[in-house]
Every structure is written in structure tokens, then in C-alpha cells.
Amino acid sequence: MAEFKNPNQQGGGQDNNSFLLMMLVLIAVFFGLQYFHTSKTKPAAPAATQTEPAPAAAPSSAQPPVAANGPAAANGTKATTAQPVVQATAASTTVIENELYRITFSNKGGEVISWILKKKPAGGAFKDDNGKPLDIIHQQAAAKYGYPLSLHTSDPALTATLANALYVPSATGNLAAPASLTFKYSAGDLAVTKTFTFDETYVLHADVEVTQNGKPVRAYLMWPGGFGDQDDSTGYASAQIDTNIEGKTAHLSQKKVTNDGTTAGPIAWAGTSDAFFAAVFLPDSPDSAVLASLKNEIDVGKTIHKSGFSMSKGPVNVPVLGAGIADVSGHTLTRVFVGPKAMSVLKAIKASNNGPNLESLVDFGFFSVIAKPLFICLKFIQSHGFSNWGWAIVILTILINLLMLPFRIKTMQNGLKMQRIQPQMNAIKERYKKYKATDPKKNEMNAEIMKLQKDNGVNMFGGCIPTLITLPLLYAFYGMLPRVVELRHAHWLWIPDLQAPDPWHILPIVMVVSQFLVQWYTPSPGVDPSQQKMMAFTMPAISGWFTWYYGAGLALYWAVGNFIGIIQQAVMNRTSLGKEMRAVAAKRARRKAGTGTGKVIQGKQ
């Protein structure tokens, strides 16, 4: 199975307890966000294959031409409603095109065999990792489990018949949207009509009706097998089923999806997505809509492009999710959105009956309350003067650090107050050192220390404020970076993709240097010297290792923030406040060492 990298990030505190607590939180959050579980289930219903069927034989009085109907066997025990034969004698394709996409239909199954996304919302064209036009269809999964806009029923044999039948299209060749395309097929007791209508947007409309023996059949219009950009660990791990039922949006991860599972309405919209693209159905009649989910596996051991997977000799199985919509009446009318999960695009698409739009389709993760505003600010900067996303990240980082400057100054002031009363605190601790930690007298010691701090205006949590602000922002950026299609393949200077690791590992090296300088220049009053040494060398190593394997955009954000912090701290160290802090720290170091001179690890003298 896939091996996912689990990076860490640096942290710090004013004492040993806060340091350990922050590290535990850091590790728990990062490893929790990286944890994905993939259950293995076998597909319940086979779909279309690549092999073209031979032309159907002429019907006879003894046997109907379609043998997949099961109950309508040739023994004549059940009457059938004969349909006039409507089926093509040869395979053909029809291409629908507008400025946004180029869709190729095959009359075999009336399915889509290629779906090229041509244009990004912000300009340019979507490309795959080889620089070719992006086909949104996962061809490997589609060949095994069915192509987009195929039909899925509870009867595997009927599903196979619907997928392999040669439909008669209303048009072949190339069509320019707005346009309409209808596929018809009938033989024996089976009749199928599929009509698709296209306009200038990412949304098309589908009208599907299947009858057998004159009775409607519930046939789900499906997107069965993932997306064409799922070629690395991130792509497969981010697959999910998205729903908006009774006004509530839910993102079902792989472990919560069951094969051939169904969910009744009212369904405003539902579909499947990965980090960047989605196929979402918006039924015309939400109250009578039913959602079907598929969960299958494919072996990508020979096709995976990027690192992050174990290239062992055995198969590398990954999940592919599918979703589809049907109406309980058997006559399905639905709009279908297939395109990028760009917020500017999703906000403009609403469910039927003036329902919710698709904006909530973008899942920013655990820290979404911070990550979404963070991205909105980044997008604003990018669209107002800094078109390059890398420079937009730099500008956003500068603005964030300027806003944090008052908190850093407040932290230094609080630290100086703490240094001034440190001898008195030590004297209190010395009086109570003979008592055990469980002795009630220790409570009196803590009460005296707290009163001393309060009398001198010391906030015991004051030194944690910058960390309490910085870490959530860092976690939010960590969660936001791989979830926004706008940053897909966004370049900056030597970096071809800000969502991928730096190919030359320049930023991780810069990250280590900048992190060490942060530790060197930042005073840490009240922190044990041995802990200072550990933080000065361990934290840069951890942050460097983390950014080595993660998206370069995060390393850029982190490194720029470090350098801004270094500049701010260097300036503050030259103020009267900074000079007094360094003088007090040096005096404490000399007294502890029992010498006339001393050095401090942090807060350059």
C-alpha cells in the first residue's frame, strides 16, 4: 500500500512543560492529518470493457437479441414487451466542445471516453504532469469499472448490457456548444434514451430513461472511477464522496464509503471529488433523488508517477471512488458539474430550486475556519498586482508578520518582567525544595509565585501568544496548500510547482538556516540553557526534514516568516528593551556559571 510522508514542524515555549506540550500537539495534528485508511472491497457489478462487441444477430422467435435480461428467458414462462430494434451497426464518436472542455462520447454505452479540461478559471490551460492537456477521466479505472455517464443498475447483467450496447447517436463528428446529443437503444424488452444538453459553462444537463418490459428501471447515471490527475499519493488519498443533504455538506472519506451503497434524498447535490476536481450531480427533483456510491481498487504499481509510494515488487492497490444519481421514478433528470474546484466557479453554480451553491465542495480540513480566510486573502493579493502565486505567498507572509509585531513586542516586555523577578521566584522555590511534589506545601509555593507574578504584571502565558497565533496559521497553510486547484502547477522562480517539494531542495536548506537564526536571535528568558541548545539545533532539523518532503509553498511561507522574524528581532534587540533583556540574561548566565563572563545561546550579544 501507499506510504505517506508525515512531516513535522518546529515549535517552542517558555519552559519545559510548554515545549513538550507544543511538540505533542504538533506531532498529533500533523500525523492525524496525514492518516488515511483504505479498506479493500471487491466490485459488485462489472461495467463496460474496451472490447467492441460484434453486431447483434437478427432476432428470432425463439430467443430475444439481448440475453442479459435474465427473467425474460427463452422458455416463455414470462411475457415480454417487444421493442423495435434501435441499435448501431458500428462504433462512432461525437465530440462536444466549448471554451472550457472537449468531451468525446462513444456510442458504445453512450459514455464519455475523454474529457479534456481546456481552460483554467484564472487563465491558461490545465495540463497533466507530462505537460499534455489534462484528461479528467482516470482511463485505467474507467477501463475496468466503467466510463463517465455510464448507467449502473442493481442487476449486473443489465448493467453490462447497457455499457456494451451500441447506441444510435443523434449526431456524430464535432459539435460546438450550446448543443444537444441523444443516444437511443432498444432491443427485445429493453429501451434506453440518454439526452445530454450543453452550454458555455462546466455544467451539462442529463435526461435518462430506461424501461424493461415497459416498466421503468432505476438506472444511476454514474461517474464510476476517479479522476485523471490522481497519479500520486495525494491524488488517491484525497478522493472522497461529497454530499449536500438537507442543507448540510458532508465529505465522506474513503473509509466511510461502501461499495454499491445508496442514500435517499432530499439531495441538493452529490458526487465524487479529489483535491482539485469534482463530478457533482444536481438533480432536478432533489426530494426523489437517490445517490449511489462505488468503491473499487486498482493496481498503480506500474503507473504511479510521483514519489510517496512503495515501489515493491507486489501490487500497489489504491482506492477509486465513484458516485451517481437516479430518480426513484426511473426517469432521471439532473445537471452534472464536471470541472475544477475553484471557488470562483463553484460559487456561481446552485442546486435546483435556488438551493445551496457548490462552494462548500472545497474542504479546507480541520483548520478550515482559518484556512479559508487565509486563501481568500492570498487570492486577493494574487489578483491585485501579484499574479505569481509564489510572490503572493511572500506578500501575505509579510503582512501576517507585520500584524504579529505588536504581540512579539508584548512578549519581550513580559519576558523582561519575568527576568526581573526571577531571583525572587528562585528564592521561593528554594524555601520549598525540601517538600515532595505531592506535599500540600507545594500549593503554597505556587500561590506565592503566582502572587509575585501578578504584583509585577507578569502574564505566565504571555510568552505563548506568538506561538498560539503562528502554529494555527502554519497548520492552516499546511491544510490549505494541497486543496486549492488555483495553486496546481503554480511556479515560482526555480520551483515548477508550489504544491510539490522543491526539486533542488534549496528552500528546505534555507529553512534550516533561517530556523537556527530565529533560535539564535530570539531571547528566551527563564528557559534552561540545555533546553535552549536542544531547541537551537533540533527545531531547525525537524523543520528542514518536514519541508524537504512537503510542498514548496509551505517552505516558502515558513522561511520568509523566519527571515522577517529575524529582522524584527534584530531591530528589537538594539532597543533599550532588548539591551536590558540581554544584560539580565547575561548576568544570570554568569551567576549560574560562577564566572565573570557569560554567553547566551539565544539573543545575540
Helices and strands, with pairings:
Elements: H1 16-33, E1 83-86, E2 93-97, E3 101-106, E4 111-117, E5 134-135, H2 139-145, E6 150-152, H3 156-164, E7 168-169, E8 173-176, E9 179-188, E10 190-198, E11 203-212, E12 215-216, E13 220-223, H4 233-237, E14 240-245, E15 248-252, E16 261-264, E17 267-273, E18 277-283, E19 289-299, E20 317-327, E21 331-340, H5 343-346, H6 368-383, H7 389-420, H8 422-432, H9 441-455, H10 465-480, H11 506-521, H12 529-549, H13 552-573, H14 576-593
Helix pairs in contact: 6-7, 6-10, 7-13, 7-14, 8-9, 11-12, 11-13
Q: Can you characterise this structure?
A:
- The chain has 605 residues and is of the alpha+beta class.
- It folds into 2 domains: 16-36 and 371-421 and 456-593, no CATH class; 83-363, Distorted Sandwich (Beta-galactosidase, Chain A, domain 5), CATH 2.70.98.
- Helix content is 35%, strand content 21%.
- The chain has 14 helices and 21 strands.
- It has helices at residues 16-33, 139-145, 156-164, 233-237, 343-346, 368-383, 389-420, 422-432, 441-455, 465-480, 506-521, 529-549, 552-573, 576-593, and strands at 83-86, 93-97, 101-106, 111-117, 134-135, 150-152, 168-169, 173-176, 179-188, 190-198, 203-212, 215-216, 220-223, 240-245, 248-252, 261-264, 267-273, 277-283, 289-299, 317-327, 331-340.
- The strands form 3 sheets. Strands 1, 7, 9, 10, 11, 12, 14, 15, 17, 18 and 21 form an 11-stranded antiparallel β-sheet that branches. A 5-stranded mixed β-sheet has the order 5-4-3-2-8, with no helix packed on it. The protein has a 5-stranded antiparallel β-sheet with strand order 6-13-20-19-16.
- β14 (240-245) and β15 form a beta hairpin.
- α6 crosses α7 (389-420), α11 (506-521) runs antiparallel to α12 (529-549) and α11 packs parallel to α13.
- Mean pLDDT is 81; it is low at 1-20, 33-78, 307-311 and 596-605.
